[in-house]
Write a structure and sequence with these properties.
Blueprint lengths: L15 H12 L6 H8 L3 H8 L6 H12 L1
Helix pairs in contact: 2-3
């Protein structure tokens, strides 16, 4: 099994969730939308939409997003 590490820099007042949301927003473009991102992460598009707009999601969602960001 391969181990990976990632350093996350969080500003004062920012949370890990905000940092993850920011990284995902950076991946979006006119052509690459939330629907495509949700497919690549392996989550429901409605969950991705809720997360990107600041609503609560499940722990499994966070696991999948974190694995996606580690790629």
């Amino acid at each position: 099994m391969t181990c990976r590490s990632k350093t996350v820099y969080i500003k004062d007042g920012e949370t890990l969730t905000d940092s993850m949301r920011g990284e995902l927003k950076d991946k979006l473009s006119r052509r690459y939308k939330i629907v495509h991102l949700a497919e690549d992460v392996g989550v429901d598009k409605f969950q991705m939409y809720r997360f990107m707009h600041g609503n609560e999601v499940t722990g499994k969602f966070y696991d999948k997003v974190f694995k996606f960001l580690m790629k």
